[in-house]
Amino acid sequence: MNGHATNGAAAHQAPLNEGNLVQALGAASSSNIQQIKSGTSQLQSWETSPGYFSLLQDAFIQTSLPIELRFLSLIQLKNGIDKYWRKSAANAITQDERSQIRARLIPSGLNEAQDKLANLNAISIAKIARYDFPTQWPSLMDDIMQLLRQSVQPDAPPKQLSRILLITHHLIKELATIRLTRNVANFRAIAPALFTTLCELYLYKFQIWQNMLTSTNFEFNMEVVNHMNDNERILKIIRRLIVSGWEFPHQDDKIQDFWKTSISHMQLYMQMFHQEGLNNTYQLSAGRHLKQLAKLHVSIAHDHSVSFALLPDSPALVRHYWDSAKMIRQRQIAAPDSISEDYVTMYDGYNLKALLLLRACFSLVWGANGNFKYRKSEATKEDPNHARELVKTELLSDAFILDLYDSVIQYFFYYLQSDIEEFTSEPEEWENKEEHTGDSFERSVRPCAERLFLDVTLHYKDLIIQPLLGKLAAMCDPSQQNILIKDAAYSAIGVGAPMLHTKLDFNSFFTGTIVPELQRQGENHSILRRRIAILLAQWISLDVSPENRPLIYQIYQHLLDKSVPDNDETVRITAGKRFNDIAVAWEFDAAQFSQYGTQILRYIIDLIQEVSMIETKLALLNTIGTIIDAMDLHVVSSSDEIVALLPKLWNENNQENLMKQAIVTTLAKLVKSMRSESIRIHSVMLPTIKMAMDPTSESQVYLLDDSLELWSQIMRQTPETATPDDLLSIIPLVFPTYEMETEYIKLGLRITQSYTILAPSSLLQDSIRPELFSRFTTLLDVRKPDIIDDICDILELLIRAADTLGGSSAVQVVAQALIQSGTLPRILDSIHADWETHQTTGPNRKDPPPDWKNETNYLLVLARILLVDSQLFISVLEAYAQARGLGTTDAIVQVLDEWFVNMDAVSSPGKKKLLCLALTKLLETGQPWILSRLQELMALWTSVCAEVRDDEKGVLSDTLVREDPAQLGLGVEMEIPEDARKRKLCWSDVVHTVNVNEFVRYHLENVVNGVGGLGRFREEWLGNVDKDVIKGFEELEIVRGLRG
């Protein structure tokens, strides 16, 4: 064996032979759970054994074995092809075994009596061909074509043709997905010969069943059905072959011939499909042929738009589709009871293909050149222009466009009887189906018709606008009693809003037509009410005057009212969903809306409890979240009802994680809008956070992101005057986020920073501080700059908080904890590594540490300690030096070296000033290692003081020293609690309270006095400073007479 299985089952596996394999397959396909586990484990243990997959094929070929066992053997073989067929795969199937399997694939498939086994075998053939054709299996396509031709011979087995067509179908389907240039070229090389064979076969079969129909006078004959089924299978293959087998299909003469054939046959199948008296089986088969040809035409139009236009009679083909679609739609409207369910499906599919073809033509004519494939030859360079012109002149004439927009409104915007029945019987399901989102236009008639109408109004506005407005006015006239006609008109006004808003006076239409319409009642009037809810949402951001907005709010309030007779469930669901667009509209006035908001929210809350589908509940909950956002503080009056709803929804949908996510998101929005008032709903939210942070909870993977966002919002909005103990008690729950993915680490650090700003003493207590700093040490080793930035910001805040709470002694406790946890040593190690880098040059220069970009942040943390107590700073470096075997002075000098070097890289005036203040404070130590750097200090003072100076305010001015904006009454009225806390922290910082000029002068004068006066100072220290540096510093006029 060349396998590597090491599990328990593999360790006791039985020898691989035919008998044991059949026994294992039998156990794995049984209904006994223990046998299934035992058999599956045994099969897995053999996966990497030589001969295993060929034995699986043996089991499939043995028709005497049970079908379930043979089916499982094929499943195992197919899975093995995915895992082990590639030569580069670990434990790949050997070349000899692959050859043996390949040789038996097609014969075993041709002889297989069971359809599901034949299908699975065909899939296996296709998967192997993807890897092996043409290099390892060069004869494959020749064999396929030969078998296709043999299958129509008189002596061919009855099932051979259907089986080889099944194999060919899966083969082409698989090969068509290959995108590698070489493999695409191989596929296109075999496409013409295979296409010729398939076309001959299709025409041969077509002629047979046509003759049989005529000879039997159209009486039912099963042989005819079988021949028609073969033809349908061939069409499926031809469609995929043409789409993927040619870059420019229109250049191939045989494709042009088949294209002509497809058009003539399509007309024949359409006649058969509608032929009165023809056997229903024949009619449905003709319908399926229509479907396959329509798929072919749409696929070519979508993937080869230029070729589609240039293939013979394509414009006429599209017109035929459109005329047939109109005819079908007219029949569906006029006589719905005469159409069976099978025909409804066929009709809808055909109509959709007609609309998609028209949209493809619009895209060809009006799309960008980038939609066309790259043209390699001169012969095809002018094809796109030719194709455009052909479609514009032969299809999209003015008369056709006028008919197009008119028919879309009249027939395709008109609800069918089946729609109305579903509207009444299954309102919730129908409303969700009517949500035309994403690519639904490729699957449904109504959304595709809406896209087509938008295409027409966009590109032919000048042509259709006046007749369109006239038609809509007539359809909306009060005398018009057909509600469905009015609904179609309202649909057109809504869909065409982006183009109509400059031509239609919507405000007049709103007050003169829509408002009176809402006051009427009658049959089907609920359909029109639903449409009005959609229409208003489509126009709200385009052309609704401020004066009419309150009336719109009243209308939605009215439409959501269950007590109104025509407001059935569908109307209220639509109004609830669409109000989301109203609430996010530009110029939404929360104060203006507030008098309606409470009642609208109440109606939507009641509706959520009334509906049953999770999709509907989620959509309505999304609307509530949007209203909460829009109302801002005005939502406080409705908060109790919202909060009462959410736990109930949670409990009713305990297994629906999407609903839980939506509830948590809604809570976060509610907290954000309520601001400090949100403290009263903490009892509802904190249990959710606890559950989401529980690693044993199944919901954690779904709720973690939203719950962390909720937690962050709670922290931001909680007032410091009333911080609840429950909120402080969950601090440890944030620590596990530091071990998660980066996005969760960032969220966790944001929450930690909020705690630092809100209640720093809670983080500094003995039960929290050690673990917090230990986690920070681990995170610093991650060495991601943005994470290190956040950690250093938190450390700065904690050091400042400790100073405020307990002065130097409290900061000493924090510093000691940072040393013991390894945080400060880790910071100093990075600075030391940077220093070593700067001491080396040339080929021997050491690489900087990975986190060298964060050196400024590290120095800012040290600066905070230094500004509190310079002796504490020295003691920190002394402890570090001892731990690393360095001299204390050496450690200090290295840090100062890096400090001065780094100053040039600091761009923030505030940070630069802070680092300057800290370095200046070191003068109070009177140590040679700082006094000897007087030249660097003076250059730094000159730079910083000049940067913050405002000459108009005097030589000693410091523009960073300013009063708190709150004290000046400047723009802080709408602050959230955390922003207010941050503002206070900002303006109480030494950066904004200490004048750097005065600070430098104070410490410099103390140094001069400390060394015995100015003369002694000049002699011992100033003499080593460059005269130009001294001159530049003295020009600041901070200190005079230094040079005598």
Structure description:
- The protein has 1044 residues and is mainly alpha-helical.
- It starts with 7 loop residues before the first helix and ends in a 10-residue tail after the last helix.
- The model is unreliable at 1-11 and 369-379 (pLDDT under 50).
Radius of gyration: 40 Å
Report the principal-axis shape. globular
Strand content: under 5%
Residues in helices, as a percent range: over 70%
How many H/I helices?
52
Give a nutshell description of this structure.
The longest helix has 37 residues, at 785-821.
Which labels suit this protein?
1044 residues; mainly alpha; 0% strand; globular; disordered N terminus
Reconstruct the topology from this structure.
Elements: H1 8-11, H2 18-28, H3 33-46, H4 52-61, H5 67-84, H6 95-110, H7 115-132, H8 140-150, H9 160-175, H10 181-215, H11 222-245, H12 253-274, H13 280-303, H14 305-310, H15 314-334, H16 341-366, H17 383-394, H18 398-412, H19 417-425, H20 427-433, H21 445-459, H22 461-475, H23 483-495, H24 497-500, H25 506-518, H26 525-539, H27 549-559, H28 569-583, H29 590-610, H30 614-631, H31 639-652, H32 657-674, H33 682-692, H34 700-717, H35 725-729, H36 742-758, H37 760-764, H38 769-780, H39 785-821, H40 823-838, H41 855-868, H42 870-884, H43 888-902, H44 909-921, H45 928-931, H46 934-948, H47 965-968, H48 977-988, H49 990-993, H50 996-1010, H51 1014-1020, H52 1027-1034
Helix pairs in contact: 2-3, 2-5, 4-5, 4-6, 5-7, 6-7, 7-9, 8-9, 8-10, 9-11, 10-11, 11-13, 12-13, 13-16, 15-16, 16-17, 16-21, 18-21, 18-22, 19-20, 20-28, 21-22, 22-23, 23-26, 26-27, 26-28, 27-29, 28-30, 29-30, 29-31, 30-32, 31-32, 32-34, 33-34, 34-36, 36-39, 38-39, 38-40, 39-41, 39-42, ...
